[in-house]
Amino acid sequence: MEENYQTPQEGKPSYGYGKRPWWQWVLLYIVVGGIVYGAVYYIFFAKSGGYNYQAPQYQENSPSSTNQNSNSNGYPQENSNVNNPPMPTPLPSPTTSNSPPPAVSQQAAAIQIKGFTFNSNNITVRKGTKVTWTNNDAVPHTVTGDNGGPSSPYINPGGSYSYVFTTTGTFTYYCSIHTNMRGTVQVIN
């Protein structure tokens, strides 16, 4: 049996991979790689929503709406330096003092998040009280219980999260993004 091999003809180059020039193969690999990358991105990130951060809404500067305490973007001046956000305020160390206990809430309590702190970091409420955390910072935060209790998703700027305390006890919580932000809710009968 005779084997039939083709040899390059005089003046015509011989190409590998099905007789295509190398640059066509490189281009084909780039195109296929981009399609695969886009499909993986769509499946794992775009379908799940990715990171749900909403950009802040800027206010227009007009002579009638200009605030002396705002910069050109409408934000308060203390938040105008994006590259150097304000440093969180450290929590006070526990002390034994003769100060009266915090006031007890009956039905609802509100905690503001501002300046990378929970404004009421130690509150006492009655069983069945609904506590609402409102984010007044320019970045997202969470409310995450150390051992049970509240467990919020990201709270975007201007958003809020509520939790009803149905059992008595002391519930410590923190921001899972900024772990130095801490607070305590004491629930009594």
Features:
1 helix, 22% strand, 189 residues, 4-stranded mixed sheet, 13% helix, 9 strands, Immunoglobulin-like, alpha/beta
Task: Write a structural description.
The chain is of the alpha/beta class and 189 residues long. Among the domains are: 16-49; 104-188, Cupredoxins -  blue copper proteins (Immunoglobulin-like, Sandwich). It contains one helix and nine strands. The chain has one helix spanning 22-46, and strands spanning 104-105, 108-114, 117-118, 122-126, 130-135, 144-145, 160-164, 169-174, 182-188. The strands form two sheets. It has a five-stranded mixed beta sheet with strand order 1-4-9-8-6, with no helix packed on it. β8 and β9 form a beta hairpin. The radius of gyration is 30 Å and the shape is rod-shaped. The relative contact order is 0.12. The model is unreliable at 62-71 and 77-81 (pLDDT under 50).
